[in-house]
Every structure is written in C-alpha cells, then in structure tokens.
C-alpha cells in the first residue's frame, strides 16, 4: 500500500492540475533495504531510513502516510499527530476499536487533518448512487445488502502472516474488509444503531511464515500454527433512518476475488454496485413505464470520472480511487475544510465493528455505542 500512496502523490497533478497542493516525496521508512532502494529509485524519495520515527520528526514533512501492518498504526499515528503532521492512514486504524479511539483522540487534540483509506466510497458510480439517493430516486430506503467477499486467504496453504495473529493483526476480517462494507453502508444510508452478528474461522491452521511474509505466500511443508482471528463475519443491522440490512465479509470465499458490493432497495426503486465491475451502476425505477434494472456506465459527467478517462466505457481502476482520495485530503488541508473520510468516519465505522464483536461474543442483539478506549471484546472469535 505504500507504493499505492506514493503513486497517488506523484499522479495528483496529472489529474488535478489546478490544485495548489504540490506533493514532494521527502522521506520513506521501511525495514527492507530493497524496498528503500525502490522508493528512492522509482518513486523519487529524497531520503530513506529504517526508522519510522525519523519520518514523524522530519522538519520538512507536513503529511505522513501510514501504510504498515495494523500493530504499528497506533504508535506511529500518535507520534506523528503529536508532531503536528497531517495523517493519511490505512484502515482499520489499529488492531481493535479501542486503538482507533486512541488515535482519534490524539488527532482531535492535535487539530490536524486526516484521511483514512475508505477508497471505495470515491468510486464515481458510487458517488452517482449517493446523488440518486439524495434526490429520492429510490423513494424511502427499506433494506440494504452489503458484502466484501475476498479470496486472498482461500488457499489453506497460504502462510500465517501477521494478518492471522491477534498480537499483530488484531481483528481478522472484521477490521480488514468488513470495515469497508460498514463504511459504504453508512456512507449511503447513514448511521447504524443496532445489530446482531456472528463470526467464524474456516481455516483453523496455516503454515508458519515470517512476519515479513505475505498472506499470498504459499507453503507446502511448513509446520502449522493456529489462526487467531476470524475468517468470516456477518451481521443483521438496523439503520437509524429505519432501513434494515445485512453486512457480510469473508477472506476465504472461493470464487469472488474482490466482491465489494451493495444492493439497496427503497419504496420506489433500487440501486446495485460491485467493485469487480466498478464502472457500472445498476438502477431500477418502478415508475418507469418499462421497469427493469438498467446498467448505467460511469462517464465524464459522473463525479471525477472525467479527470481520468474521456468517455463512458473507458474504466477507472483501484489506483485512481487513491488519487481521488489524496486530492480530497490535500485540498482539505489547503482550505482547512475536511473533504476526505478521516478519523471521525473511521471511529464511526469501528464503533459498528466493536458492536459486531460484542454481539458475536454474547449471541445477542446490541446497540452501537460511541467508540471509547475501553476494549470491546478482543479479536478472537
């Protein structure tokens, strides 16, 4: 993800030439000498180091990107915030909701700007869906189905990287991809106030690998070690506005690769979107004389699509969403008016995730409570 952030900074003025923000890549920290060399040679960082503290303390740095494993989020974010640096932080902002709360408190105390990597909300087709909702195109929303079904851990030979260990990853799929599904739901329909939930581990053991290894690394003969957090989670939710919904997330689903998707139904219509076909929005309007789902292609008139491609049918990709994200973040800093989803939105999402932990642990329906620094149930299912 550090590469993605670096590319986004470098591409910013290609797509938003009028912006007054002029990102300069000052210093990068990485434990790997090879990645440090790549950062300098490919991305153009002026300095490299193996000590993240040098980044947080550097006098020429205004913004710190934090694209590291979950167990480092809290320490680095708090140090950078206390140094007065603005933060671009990848979700889930800590291992557990209590760490997100600590970061959010420090950010508010420091008075800095933040962006958190809820990039799917910036998809032009999703922005169009939000506009249609605001215009009453579906009538009163009644129910919502959101899911993030991934296959990155579907092979049981995949290594037990930091993501599967509570001390390093914290939560499993709840923090990793359910956070995206919950953010999208709240982005479209507003706060969730009550829910029930369950979670499960479907691959209980994985091959031991080093902490530096990826979960994509496959081992045929390494000794097995236990998986310490959930592979799967699902929740029945009630939105504050009255709609009901389901949210589901998995990292071991065979078939879908990155099926981050939603279906939203109302009294007069419906909307549907799937990241695997991210430039398409499906719309149903019961008032149409010939009703049925219509495919609407994202095009130059759809949010920031025209900043990247000249016509409908020429699609955007994941990296483009990160460029949109960093543009909104940096413009917010320049104007002192937040435009990107930041720590307040992350705290709201992790309050929902914390409620899912409590509901799964107790087997009962629970109220979503404001995020606090108190533990909300641990990562282990």
UniProtKB/TrEMBL annotation:
**Domain GFO/IDH/MocA-like oxidoreductase as annotated: residue spans:** 127-271
Q: Which GO terms describe its molecular function?
A: nucleotide binding; oxidoreductase activity
The Gfo/Idh/MocA-like oxidoreductase N-terminal domain covers which part of the protein? Answer: 2-118
What keywords is this UniProt entry annotated with? Oxidoreductase
InterPro entries the UniProt entry points to = Gfo/Idh/MocA-like_OxRdtase_N (IPR000683), Gfo/Idh/MocA_oxidrdct_glycsds (IPR050463), GFO_IDH_MocA-like_dom (IPR055170), NAD(P)-bd_dom_sf (IPR036291)
Ion transport in keyword set:
no
Q: What is the protein name given in its UniProt record? A: Gfo/Idh/MocA family oxidoreductase
Q: Which organism is this entry from?
A: Egibacter rhizosphaerae
């Amino acid at each position: 993800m550090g590469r993605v952030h670096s590319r986004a900074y470098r591409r910013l003025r290609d797509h938003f030439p009028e912006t007054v923000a002029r990102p300069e890549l000052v210093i990068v920290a990485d434990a790997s000498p090879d990645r440090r060399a790549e950062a300098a040679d490919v991305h153009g960082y002026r300095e490299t180091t193996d000590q993240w503290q040098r980044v947080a303390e550097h006098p020429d740095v205004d913004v710190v990107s934090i694209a590291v494993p979950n167990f480092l989020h809290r320490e680095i974010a708090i140090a950078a915030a206390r140094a007065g640096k603005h933060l671009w932080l990848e979700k889930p902002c800590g291992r557990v909701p209590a760490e997100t709360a600590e970061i959010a408190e420090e950010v508010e105390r420091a008075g800095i700007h933040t962006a958190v990597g809820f990039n799917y909300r910036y998809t032009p087709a999703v922005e169009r869906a939000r506009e249609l909702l605001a215009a009453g195109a579906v009538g009163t929303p009644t129910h919502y189905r959101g899911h993030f079904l991934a296959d990155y851990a579907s092979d049981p030979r995949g290594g037990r990287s930091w993501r599967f260990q509570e001390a390093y990853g914290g939560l499993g799929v709840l923090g990793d991809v359910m956070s995206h599904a919950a953010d999208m739901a709240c982005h479209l329909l507003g706060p969730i106030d009550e829910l029930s939930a369950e979670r499960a581990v479907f691959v209980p053991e994985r091959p031991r690998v080093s902490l530096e290894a990826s979960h994509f690394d496959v081992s045929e003969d390494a000794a097995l070690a236990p998986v310490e957090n959930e592979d799967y989670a699902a929740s029945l939710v009630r939105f504050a506005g009255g709609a009901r919904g389901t949210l589901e997330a998995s990292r071991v689903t065979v078939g879908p690769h990155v099926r981050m998707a939603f279906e939203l139904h109302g009294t007069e219509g419906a909307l549907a979107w799937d990241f695997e076909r991210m430039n398409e929005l499906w719309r149903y309007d019961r008032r149409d004389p010939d009703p049925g789902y219509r495919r609407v292609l994202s095009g130059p008139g759809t949010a920031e699509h025209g900043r990247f491609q000249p016509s409908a049918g020429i699609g955007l990709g994941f990296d483009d969403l990160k460029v949109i994200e960093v543009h909104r973040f940096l413009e917010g800093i320049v104007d002192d008016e937040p435009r990107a989803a930041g720590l307040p939105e992350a705290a709201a999402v992790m309050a929902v995730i914390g409620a899912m932990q409590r509901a799964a642990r107790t087997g009962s329906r629970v109220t979503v409570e404001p995020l606090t620094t108190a533990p909300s149930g641990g990562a282990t299912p």
